[in-house]
Amino acid sequence: MILKALGEDRLLGQLLPRLPLAKSVPVGAGDDCALVKPPAGGNLLVLKTDCLVEGIHFLSRTAPQDVGWKAMMRPLSDFAATSALPQFALITLIASKETEAEWVKRLYGGLCRAAKRFKVSIVGGETSSTRGPIAISVSVVGFVEKDRWASRRGGKDGDDLFVTGRLGGASRAKHLRFMPRIAESRWLTKNFPVHAMMDLSDGLGVDLPRLARASKVGFSVEMENLPLTRGTKIDNAISEGEDYELLFAISPRQSKRLQKDWRRKFPKLLLTRIGKLNSKFEIRNSKFSRGYVHFQQSS
Amino acid sequence: MILKALGEDRLLGQLLPRLPLAKSVPVGAGDDCALVKPPAGGNLLVLKTDCLVEGIHFLSRTAPQDVGWKAMMRPLSDFAATSALPQFALITLIASKETEAEWVKRLYGGLCRAAKRFKVSIVGGETSSTRGPIAISVSVVGFVEKDRWASRRGGKDGDDLFVTGRLGGASRAKHLRFMPRIAESRWLTKNFPVHAMMDLSDGLGVDLPRLARASKVGFSVEMENLPLTRGTKIDNAISEGEDYELLFAISPRQSKRLQKDWRRKFPKLLLTRIGKLNSKFEIRNSKFSRGYVHFQQSS
């Protein structure tokens, strides 16, 4: 059955009872606004929105469960970048009236599975028709302790640069089934003074210059040390994007202890020192600034 | 200049410095997540997301300032329905690479003007390209006192039903330039025990049955009492939608004092008793359930 035949209210009637909901949600989806309990005193609210568009971030033939997973996990990867804990999500679905209701239910299956993985409640959303491609926008609200949030700013001259996992090759399948590094990020800020952090979504070649600009420093990367996904080349690791790994800067005095403790805590996830921040506020390697940029004309 | 030529980072560089930002925002747009101060203890967090799609909610020739105003004011109208105060907004813009950057700047002009009107900070967002129509999704976070929030539930058998303003005729211009009834709603819950409330976005004919269903009661409407916009008919008032007026239920014992105090407080805004809630959980008048429904086939 297509959406036009099912109707918005019946669609919602089928979707809403299945949404994951914590006890901290007095009023969830179905009313004009959602009402939720605020974080405890001493914590900051953390807000993030992100979207997927058919033909740009996924294909018409992509499994809807994978689309849902990706739509939820992309903003959660930004929570990892901030070392924050996500709690509540709002979902906006823009779809044609001819979309199969079954497709939408599977999409929500993926959204819910991803939300449950990180104990996120889906507390509301919006549906709209369109004459164009499907788009899914997910906004997430959560919290972080006042003395523990990470940002792109704060990187210092001389800091060591680390990345988690392996880079490149995302376009084959990883971009649909990645795991936001929230557990790793929370462990990092609990145990180490992280100067600057972000998640790699547009590719190291675009994202590292962003971190450096925000921190007002330069950087050097040891290309031969980049942790490549098997079967990919350096160019993939720099320009492909959608790695959803963490990139962070930390004092070199902490590097040894970090690497030792990391291996014990996360034995299955690689942690690699890929270079350093320095005082030269310039980008020398022309390979950088070649990740995926929305709206930008390819060179 | 079109977006493809300008590029995402340069576009953001031009937009971000102009965004309204309160002091309660330690980290605004430009980082992975936004960080904001949570509401004081005793308040609940309020979350809402909404979207506009070109060809559905606005036309390609609609002035972009008006599109921005409407995109921000629609979720704020839901805050009015909840009697909540909005504080922070996230904006997702999905647009073709061929979109004029000037159009986007004017859109943000409208978004910012609307946000400032209610002291809302624009703390972040996302841009994505698309091969389809433009879409703008706005998520808003705010707060409401624990003992003061309104919802669609809670209407009681015998309650009087009131609407603010006039209904119908929205499609001519009002749907682009309306004012969310936040001040009125806050005054209402401060001074009267409001049993149930919502904003009229899809039309009285669809929205009133929703309020009745959520409250598990029936309703009767005195058609001859509906406050019609000049030049419109009863059918417009019921089915056209996009009135963005408040509909609420209150004990008949409060009605007289309410009407008297309202005239003094809001002399320029009509308040009309349009009917009653009753115990018959059914919808008799066939004109009802004829507002605007997304995805529904018109009968």
Low-confidence stretches of chain A: 293-299
Count of individual helical segments of chain A: 9
Oligomer: homodimer
Derived structural class of chain A: alpha+beta
Strand content of chain A: 15-25%
Considering residues with a beta carbon less than 8 A from a beta carbon on another chain, report the largest interface and each chain's count.
Answer: A-B, 75 and 75 residues
Shape of chain A: globular
Average predicted confidence as pLDDT of chain A: 90
The main pleated sheet of chain A reads as: 5 strands, antiparallel
Report, as a whole number of angstroms, the end-to-end distance of chain A: 44 Å
Order of helices and strands of chain A: HHEEHEHEEEHHEHEHEHE
Strand order of the largest sheet of chain A: 7-9-6-10-8
Helix content of chain A: 25-40%
Alpha carbon gyration radius of chain A: 20 Å
In total, the number of strands of chain A is 10
Any overview of this molecule?
The structure is a homodimer of 299-residue chains. With 299 residues, chain A is α+β, with helices and mostly antiparallel strands. Chain A contains nine helices and ten strands. The longest helix of chain A has 19 residues. The radius of gyration of chain A is 20 Å and the shape is globular. The interface between A and B is large, with 75 and 75 residues. Strand 2 of chain A pairs antiparallel with strand 1 of chain B, so a sheet runs across the interface.
